[in-house]
Input
Amino acid sequence: RNDPTSDVPPPPPPSVGAEPMQAVGRVEEVDVEGRRLQLRIDGTKLDFYQDRSVTYEVQLGPAGTATASLHADLWNDSPTSGYPPYVIGPYKSYSTQAGENVAVVDLYCARGCVLQDGTRNGEPVELERYQSDGYPYFEDYVRTPSGDTATIEAQLLLSNAWIGSDTGGAYRLSFVGQSTIRPTRVHVVIH
Output
């Protein structure tokens, strides 16, 4: 890690294979067979200091149905001083204090997916619903002060989640990640 008392800002994390979603920031995706958690980070450089952990738990049901729980922790270990505002904020209207990370969290689902509920830090939150190429996705802005962890959770109902019969079947799962300084930890449980 760079010396926080230095006048030189830390280097940005590598963006191998990333396609920018907006003029500033970078994109990281966790793709679970059509169900994707996507983090688009604000214009500061604070994503360099963020640790991400994602747990995806799916319960397979009859006739290809399933229920799923998604839990994401965003730990913000950014400095609050020692760097210029373009590194630690506050940044325009996105962040309100130095060291605050603002992530746009998008949860993409397969067609037919229904969001039962979502929470941010244990409190119910209405996630905005959008659609992209026929796939629904839900969006939330998550503010995490330095030294804090934000937690996002979602409960999903899935149709056509797996193929097979009572005697066996297949559930396809893929993880598409981006090389980062602090890679996302992903834990998947299938019942």
Notes: The first strand starts at residue 27 and ends at 32. The radius of gyration is 18 Å. Confidence is low (pLDDT under 50) at residues 1-33.
